[in-house]
Please model this.
Amino acid sequence: MMTELNTGVVVTGGASGIGLASAKMLAESGRPVAIWDLDTEKSQRAAADIVSRYDVLALGLGVDVRNNDAIRDAAAKTRAVLPAIGGLVHAAGIVLVTGISDVTEENWAAVLDVNLRAQVLIVKEFLEDFKQCPGAAIVGIASMNATLGNGMIPAYSASKGGMLSLTRSMSDELGRHGIRINAVSPGMIATQMLLNSVDEVALDRFSQTTHLGRLGEPEEIGAVVKFLLSSEASYITGTELVVDGGAIPSQRS
Model:
């Protein structure tokens, strides 16, 4: 019988940042991974590195998760290489700074389609696979901005708030099949995207607004993702796990 310990996990946005850290943590525990990312070359490099480091099956695919046909094609290629699919990490995401005045139909849809809509489509595609895998589980990467107000990124904030509601909704149906689904809400994490986009003064300010006084590391999110996909979290579903170093409860500025 396939269990969560040896079933494959699909990781969207898996070629960098939190997605890549999650894929590596899962591979280190012995689980095969399929890295889906918009950048085909980066996906393939990441998969090759995981095979070399952890001696597990890994597949790297270029996938535009906004496109349902692309999802179906990638799912077929994933099934052909990996053993039974028993896990999903939806880490693919984009953020656009627009405020309200610069919101358009196009940029609003671009964010919601990747961050939120894609998770529904991917779960639908793999639903029968998950049903066949005892211990199957899903993790969506939300954000502390699902709770905090940030006027500069309305589409991103709405997509992550939507993910929390979607997690609770899907948990109701998926739980009948023994499939768990949860969301992880990271705070300020030292991904390359963040480090490249702000200066040291801003990074220091971000750090000091947390109770722990520092940014988080992608591996600290990956560890939580690995836990939620494991049998150690067998009675956890439909919930949000905040990993923000104390940013939400902080009153520091």
In short: The two ends are 52 Å apart (CA to CA). The longest strand covers residues 180-186. The longest helix spans residues 105-131. The mean pLDDT is 94.
